[in-house]
Amino acid sequence: MTVGSHLAASVPSSLPASAPSSTPSRLFRRSRTALLGESLWPQRLALIAIAGLAGLSYAWALNRDPLEPYYAASVRSMSMSWHDFLFGAFDPAGTITLDKLPGAFWVQALAVRAFGVHTWAVVLPQVVEGVLTVLVLYRAVARLAGPMAGLIAAGVVAVSPATVALNRGNISDTLMILLVVLAADAVTSALVHGRQGMLVVAGIWVGLAFQAKMIEAWMLLPAFGLVYLLCGPGSTARRVRQLLVGAAVAAVVSLSWMTAVSLVPTSHRPYVDGSHNDSVYEQVFVYNGFGRFGDQTPLQLLAGQSLGIGLDQKVPPAAPNRLLRGSFGRDTGWLLPAGLAVALCGIVSRRGRPRDDPLRACFVLWGVWLATLVAVFSWTTTINSYYTAALTPAIAALLGAGVTAVWSAQRSGWARRVGLALLVAGTVGYGAWLVDGAGAPAPGWLLPAVIAVGVVALGTSVASLAWRSDVLLGAALAGALVAGVLAPAVASAQLVAQSKGAFDTPFESVQDAAYIDRVFVDTPAQIVPLIPRLESLQNGAPYLLATQTSAVASVFIDASGLEALPIGGFTGTIPSPTLAQLQADIRHGLFHLVLAAPSHDPRLEWIADHCLKAGRAASGLRNYYCMPADAG
Q1: What are phi and psi of 625, to 5 degrees?
Q2: What pLDDT digit, counting tens, does each position of 510-527 carry?
Q3: How far out from the chain centre does Cα 197 lie?
Q4: Is the distance from CB of 407 to CB of 4 less than 8 angstroms?
């Protein structure tokens, strides 16, 4: 069986006008029967190969992947104590929490507790989660658009630079993406069967995703709700009722840990970082939520602490084209315009079809997903480049469904062939522009190769307009895919070959690469030899030292597993510990050494006035030595 005939068999080219409107799920069941009625072994083998390639790229030299030290320190602390694990504590003494919800870091902490403190143990959960995302995305797309669409989606997401870089680090987005893709898979199952239970499952997955990345998980609720409201089986009232139940489940699961922590007396738990009144709700909905639109971000606040750390990398300002240029473009922008165009054209092209048309449901689900995140990421105050990995499942799914739509429309629609040619020309031209304008030179052969493959794909697409041949159309579709994924696939391969991680981008400038190495590789490496000297200065104190901000404390905790008391939380502006608590800690001899920069913070001013200055450290920090007598 040819690829073309297989696609045609998987997704009906037309739907009978006499289909009873009272049983809308019949069309979904027919699509599912077509999917499962053929031998699945070729698809399974192809899927195994794609998943294996993804796992290899995520895990290659994983013990050399640079870790984000703040999260690595938190995971080490959480692995040492079930109390710290439960509350998501940042430091071993459990004085303050992470400035995020701990869901994704629970998985990493369990891995460290099981296998020991190793880089590979921290990265391994992300490798597994990334591979599972590839497999689940295949199933979610194939259920509505056929197995070939699912395979294309799996392949595209596996070679996306944003995805590859993210899954080679210790960032929470990997788990969040897996969980929301699982939620999308449950929604597609609900579209097929009309069962309330699958929307409940989707709500559970969204709630768990909230534990991993907070409000970002809720950003996908419009996509899930809209596709079921428009395309789900049953009456409108029934669909609304089912969606309300699913939304209630999502809310309960999302807020369960936050509510439980809020009920614990403050004396029995760490202070909640990211809040000024010890509130986990403030941490989630202000500090990590709506405060990201207009307020100073945590990194901007940290940069104002005179520590020499913060915002060396330039982030494009909020703008409609923010995701299409610079590091964001090279991370996931390659196929972003194509994904948006396919979503729009796909929805328009399915007009007049029955309400429960599977392919239209696929375009609505992933199109709204993509449009929502693009809008938010374009206008939030600042974002990290790895955020864009959340766009890749939707882009991949839309491209897979788009190929299915072009092929299945009786393979004779001239409008789709013209659209294919325009899409190839635009995607290849944009990809060539990204390669040519990269911060560092891409492989010399890449730009000519992208142009050459693009010209061949465009020529084949134009030829398919003149000669209505299935072979030519199939070749044009295959050429379009190769032309589109060539540059991002090479970019991903380079990231893997150079042992780059979540904060790196393809073809990044020398300055950006140097900054990332300094923060995530050089600085932690310089701390390790200092630990014995610092231990000798403890002079019987339980804590190794105290530091200005959790960002500084993290490198000591990650390197030693010893307590480095953070003053002011991640940003240095949090009222934990208070001045009275600091004075009490010094009076009781909990620590002697303090690392801090000159500051107007009353706590640090008091230390500078009452403790012995013991010289300068790196990055503008000064050493202070505090004895119990200093606190009176």
Answers
A1: -120, 115
A2: 888 888 887 787 777 788
A3: 27
A4: yes
